[in-house]
Recover the amino acids of this structure.
């Protein structure tokens, strides 16, 4: 697979088939992904891969926490700003509304939106869940390294015919994850990743997000011709 095709065909899949993913395939994806660069090659990531019973127990525990006492759970790092500004606000809205529109969920249907949000905690039915952590004794720069590693996982999954969805939603429930998996006190739960086979019939998987063109986000200087 051409690198461009692997990158372009990656998308957030939010409904997976039950088809299992062998441990060897998960290991291969992680081995390839660990070729990600990191400052001073510190390789700050750790991954907890769950399938079968441990995955089910984790999902049950988080769904219970998320439905009974969600306000008690907070992430250990701030992913989103408290105050959104443009152009991010508009992009964020388009993303949310676009997804709900493909699912036929009305903007004011908070119950249906909540149900869809909770699907995060069953990894959108993916048979494999990855929980990605970062050592808190490192610094902000290591979040860059972690992001490259996470992107590698999502792109390497494409080379195996698999799809993913990165899920910051898990960061809120790090205490529940800690009850289930042996994270050390040094680890921040950065995100989850759903991994599996896309359900091609699911409407939510047909939702393709927009991107700004380089003219919007890049500045060129010193080239002979316009790109
Ligand atoms: C680190 C990270 C965390 C994310 N967390 C969630 C999440 O918790 N739930 C979800 O449905 N999508 C999540 N997403 C997916 C984004 O909404 C998605 O990447 C974005 O809308 C662009 O769409 P695309 O991935 O299909 O290209 C996350 C993406 C990233 C990179």
């Amino acid at each position: 697979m051409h690198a461009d095709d692997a990158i372009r065909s990656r998308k957030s899949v939010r409904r997976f088939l039950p088809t299992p993913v062998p441990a060897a395939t998960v290991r291969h994806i992680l081995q390839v992904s660990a070729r990600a660069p990191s400052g001073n090659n510190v390789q700050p990531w750790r991954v907890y891969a769950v399938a079968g019973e441990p995955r089910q127990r984790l999902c049950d525990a988080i769904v219970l926490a998320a439905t009974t006492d969600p306000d008690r759970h907070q992430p250990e790092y701030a992913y989103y700003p408290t105050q959104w500004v443009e152009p991010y606000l508009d992009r964020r809205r388009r993303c949310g509304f676009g997804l709900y529109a493909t699912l036929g969920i009305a903007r004011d249907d908070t119950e249906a939106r909540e149900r869809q949000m909770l699907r995060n905690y069953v990894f959108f039915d993916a048979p494999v869940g990855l929980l990605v952590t970062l050592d808190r004794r490192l610094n902000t720069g290591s979040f860059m390294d972690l992001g490259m590693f996470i992107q590698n996982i999502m792109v390497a999954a494409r080379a195996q015919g698999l799809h993913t969805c990165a899920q910051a939603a898990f960061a809120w429930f790090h205490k529940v994850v800690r009850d289930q998996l042996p994270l050390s006190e040094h680890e921040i739960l950065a995100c989850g990743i759903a991994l599996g086979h896309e359900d091609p019939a699911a409407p939510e998987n047909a939702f393709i997000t927009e991107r700004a063109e380089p003219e919007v986000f890049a500045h060129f200087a010193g080239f002979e011709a316009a790109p």
Summary: Helices lie at 3-9, 23-33, 52-68, 88-102, 110-118, 141-159, 174-180, 214-217.
